[in-house]
Amino acid sequence: MSKAASMFHPKRLDLSGFVNTRVIRDHNKRNAFAQMEPERQALRYIIRNTSLPQRTRAQAQLQLSQMHCYTRPTQIKNRCVASGTARSVFRDFRLNRFQFRMQALAGELPGVKKASW
Amino acid sequence: MFLGTTRSLVGASKRLWTPISIRSLSTPNQPSAPSTKTSTTAPQIKAEPTPTSATSPTSATPMPVKESAAFEKPPVKEWLVELWRSLTTLFNVLVLIIFLFLEYSRSDRLADLEKNARLPRSVQALYLRPLRRKAEHGLPVCDLQLRSYSAENLEFFADFAIRAAYYLKLPVSGPVPLPRITQRWTVIRSNFVHKKSKENFERITLRRLIQIKDGHPEAVQAWLAFLRKHAFYGVGMKANVWEHESLDAGKALDASLPEIQKTVGPHLAQFGQREDNKRPGTIFDALDNARYAEPKNL
Fold first, then answer.
1. How far apart are the CA of B105 and the nearest CA of chain A, in angstroms?
2. Measured between CB atoms, does B203 come within 8 Å of chain A?
3. Which parts form a coiled-coil structure per UniProt (chain A) (predicted)?
4. Cβ-Cβ contacts under 8 Å for B53 (sequence gap 6 or more)
């Protein structure tokens, strides 16, 4: 049973913007999840379906747990597109708080202004 | 200090430059050089400078001859300068005359226009409030919501939309200013630590609602297509369109059912499957497949 993450590496780098090892890894996880999602959902359906025989359900449980960890949705973490940082990334802009501030001050984010109230 | 010195230098250069140029331009025949030769003959000649007095000392010494020859040239140059100057003045006068003539005719024409002509009605209408059709029944057909971060763009495009609706003969109400959406973010100023120093940012989305009343669905679609074609930068659009049917819509639906089933059939056959994952058989066939029964090597 091979657990190598390299199986999810694309042949060519299909990323633009800020590229980092961690950014690439996260991208691979996203691809892996997208690729294996139907299978995961099918297995989850089988596990939860009480009308199916117990043996089948147990087998499905085993299979699901044996899938690669990259295929789990919980592995995906939002990262800043400008700096690759994983902490305090705004979903609205896909930017780190500091990158957000820099870009907002530079006027690169439409409509975002300094607030005082 | 440095500035002061430079200024004084510039002033000195000006003082040095100006008298020479004026003399050479204003008195072409006056010999300025004789200061050297007069020193040899007599100092009185300098007081009354004439061509004769200038030529007489030249014969006395060989050196001043060359100098006088050199000073013979300037008169030609000066003559040319004089000619050029007169020509330019003449040209200027001519230009002035032509300009005055043109100005007069233009003002005349403008006055004429004001008296006898007017702008086309469609252009004139731009300076006035947009015209509107009257709604007969007041049945809402379409709700158009405009959103923007800048009020000018939004107002402009709302105005444009209302004018377009008028020419499509659609009764319109609005623009109704909807509540603004204010989003605020507070971020730490620095990229690392210093948590107490923060900065606030906000984004205010302005909204306007334009409602079309009892318009024909096709006219409404044409209006929406027109607005989309001439979409303004920084203004977003969202439309809710309602269509109204007659009371016996049920019968019409029943009649059209077989045809709808035919068209929907191929789509329903793919129910629960993704477009890119077409396989023969149902999902249960796939689940019964040996591929699912085997343990995964992932």
1. 50
2. yes
3. none
4. B45
- What's the CATH number where B174 sits? 3.30.70.600
* Model pLDDT for residues B181-240, shown as the tens digit of each residue: 999 999 999 999 999 999 999 999 999 999 999 889 999 999 999 999 999 999 999 999
* B199 neighbourhood in chain A, CB within 8 Å: 101, 114
- What is the radius of gyration, based on Cα positions, of chain A? 20
Pick from B191, B199, B297: CB nearest A2: B297
Domain presence at residue B11: no
Strand residue runs (E) in B103-194: 140-148, 172-188
B271-to-A44, A46, B17, B283 alpha-carbon distances in Å:
19, 19, 96, 10
CATH topology of domain A19-77: Helix Hairpins (1.10.287)
Q: Is residue B220 part of a domain?
A: yes
Q: Please indicate, yes or no, if residue B280 is contained in any of the structural domains.
A: no
Tell which of A2, A97, A105 to mutate to test the B interface (max B CBs under 10 Å).
A97
Distance of residue B194 Cα from the nearest chain A Cα, in angstroms: 13
- Give the ipTM: 0.84
Domain boundaries of chain A, sorted by first residue: 19-77, 79-111
Decide if A87 contacts A96 (C-beta within 8 A): yes
End-to-end CA separation in angstroms for chain B: 82
- Contact assignment for A67 to B189 by CB distance below 8 Å: no
Amino acid at the residue B247: L
Give ∠ CA B102-B103-B108 in degrees, rounded to 5. 100
For B284, the closest chain A residue by CA position comes to: A42
Our count of domains for chain B comes to 1
pTM, two decimal places? 0.59
Q: Is residue B200 part of a domain?
A: yes
Minimum CA–CA partner of A40 in chain B: B292
